[in-house]
Specification:
Blueprint (H helix, E strand, L loop, with lengths): L3 E8 L21 H14 L4 E6 L3 H14 L4 E2 L43 H18 L4 E6 L1 H11 L18 E7 L2 E8 L18
Parallel strand pairs: 1-4, 2-3, 2-4
Antiparallel strand pairs: 1-5, 5-6
């Protein structure tokens, strides 16, 4: 008989970033109050699932998103560098034409090739490391479920690869909201489906209502 295993790719919650920089892999970027509430909402949503493996990107915002799940599920969090945010030459800068880094001609050369892309880690490299991390989690959680806490671009890139889409894309069209789950189901070693859900969807900024810590 075939064995079903689910690997959930969880994007971290909202980050406190008042300067609106591209923080990338920089240290000391933590969840905001809203981000903590998002993480707690996800933990409550998956508490009854058959999750036996919990892995996180080493970045603080990912570990802080994993923490409520670890408490709810009674699991330890294993760190995996393969789940890190993608490298980006604009890390630590604001991005845009007005007051952002694109107003400076010295940055324009990094935009010459959007297909690789020329400003950061190649999409194919991102997909390969994510698939490897997912495969290891699948083996460890065989017949059960695993949660891997990562970042928007790596999650969207590996999903695009699995679903056979081109890897270069418009970032505004990514279906990977804060604290969302992209669930990959394996039948034995073969991926058979990809699903998407937003357990903290009502807390997303687009909901258009003020956040209350007691909500």
């Amino acid at each position: 008989m075939s064995e079903l295993t689910r690997v959930h790719l969880l994007r971290h919650g909202e980050v406190h970033n008042p300067s609106k920089v591209l923080y990338g892999r920089l240290p000391d970027y933590h969840l905001s109050e809203l981000g903590i509430a998002m993480a707690e909402r996800v933990a409550a949503a998956v508490a009854d699932r058959d999750i036996t493996v919990l892995v996180s990107s080493p970045l603080e915002r990912a570990q802080e998103t994993a923490a409520p799940l670890a408490e709810k599920l009674g699991l330890e969090v294993r760190l995996d560098d393969r789940l890190l945010e993608a490298l980006n030459v604009f890390e630590g800068l604001t991005f845009g034409v007005g007051d952002g880094s694109l107003r400076r001609p010295r940055h324009w050369r990094h935009l010459r090739n959007p297909f690789t892309p020329s400003w950061g880690e190649p999409y194919r490299d991102i997909a390969a490391r994510m698939l490897a991390a997912m495969s290891d989690a699948r083996r460890e959680a065989a017949g059960h479920e695993a949660v891997l806490v990562s970042h928007q671009l790596p999650i969207w890139t590996v999903r695009s690869f699995i679903e056979g889409r081109r890897l270069w894309h418009d970032p505004r069209r990514r279906e990977c909201a804060l604290a969302s789950l992209t669930t990959v189901t394996y039948e034995d070693e073969t991926i058979v489906s990809v699903a998407y859900s937003e357990p903290a969807g009502d807390l997303l900024p687009r909901a258009g209502k003020p956040f209350s810590a007691g909500a």
